[in-house]
Amino acid sequence: MGDVAARLAEIVGDKNLLTGGAISEDYAHDEALTAEPQKPAYVAKPATAEEVAELLKVASENNVPVTARGSGSGLSGAARPRADGLLISFERMNAVLEVDTGNHVAVVQPGVTLAELDAKTAEAGLSYTVYPGELSASVGGNVGTNAGGMRAIKYGVTRNNVLGLQAVLPTGEIIRTGGKTSKISTGYDLTQLIIGSEGTLALATEITVKLHPRLSHGATVLAPFGDFGQVMAAVPAVVSSGLAPHILEYIDNLTMAAIVYNEKLELGVPDHIRETSEAYLVVALENRESGRLQEDVEQVGELLGELGATDVYVLEGGAARKLIEAREKAFWTAKAAGADDVIDVVVPRTAMPQFISKARELAMAAGGGALGCGHAGDGNVHLGIFCKDADRRKRLLTDIFSYAMELGGAISGEHGLGRTKASYHQQLEDPAKIELMRRIKQSFDPAGILNPGVLFPEGTV
């Protein structure tokens, strides 16, 4: 162990290698509710791709498991290290290397946070549009989980907004995939294969992201509904309207009440409407011109009224911003309320009503509850699961995930499988697909050092 530590220190420098008591608790976990914290044997903080490559060579030669870490804001346990492992923290690789206004791209290192990238691109009137709900999240972490967020309905998820990577293979080889071009049809798309692989295939050390013009005018419409089914029925109508909302969210009444209370929001919804509402639809619109934006707001208001909304409220700037920020932090609201797990199942959006109804029924039958909100425009349902008994909760989640897959959905829409959901995927997914994924993993990582226990349960690769 001392010899390995010495070799790692030679690569990154003594002050950038932590061992033993020098490793803080922050490196022991991400934000998953069900993954117990675990300090690694080593924390290395590289500054270059070449240093990452040398670290991985040492790890491969000594069979040391490796976990990559950006900001540690993930929700699936993928950034929780192994006790005998090396945690590679990208906190020093946090530069925006280029904002290319001609090609509408930015080139960044993996440790750059979304807040830092947003500030830099704003100077050029551009924007990176992936907002998974936590602006302290790193771009590299987003690549690892294929993060999504509320704006995915209009702009897509991470894989729709990353054009190229520099990545280091566990053998120490440095490769480049994609680039500043918006399309490519030359061989396998390794960029897309690495995105969402949760640090199990390669470690991204440079990321080329797509940028969009930053629109200067925006408005948020809040519509309460007395019947949950009406909310869900309204979603395809709004999508089909041509109004192109960049946010289209549903929030159930209990979650909205918790958000309003915790954030001390003043939304202007009268008590009698709030008390009779089962759920809310949040529609955010944007435009280059204020006049056109106003026309769109009026049109969506009329449409929602026709679709059964009890009323329609156009939120002022401060209230709108606070509501969106509170919705982005719904995980923390669920955590504060005592949720035992948080899931992010995705189903075809037309199947959302029956999925949510069934999930609630299953939770009640297990003696628990399932509450939450979701990206109504893309079928991504975020539920806080309340079920204290671990065995019952495991059976409940198995049933919920199984039903989502029956509907044509998947276990995770944007949080990833990590360590917390890997066993469910192994149990429920097509064995032929699992075996193909296993062969891909072995091809990239023959020594099996990258994030063992993530995507594949321990000992199954």
Structure in a nutshell:
This protein is of the alpha+beta class and 461 residues long. It has helices at residues 2-12, 49-62, 114-122, 139-145, 152-155, 190-194, 228-240, 253-263, 271-276, 290-306, 317-328, 330-336, 352-365, 390-406, 422-428, 431-444, and strands spanning 17-19, 42-44, 66-69, 86-89, 96-100, 105-108, 126-127, 162-168, 174-178, 203-210, 212-213, 217-225, 247-252, 279-287, 313-315, 341-343, 369-375, 380-386. The longest helix has 17 residues, at 290-306.
Question: Which features characterize this protein?
Answer:
flavoprotein; 461 residues; Uridine Diphospho-n-acetylenolpyruvylglucosamine Reductase, domain 3; Uridine Diphospho-n-acetylenolpyruvylglucosamine Reductase, domain 2; 16 helices; Alpha-Beta Plaits; FAD; FAD binding; Glycolate oxidase; 7-stranded antiparallel β-sheet; oxidoreductase activity; alpha+beta
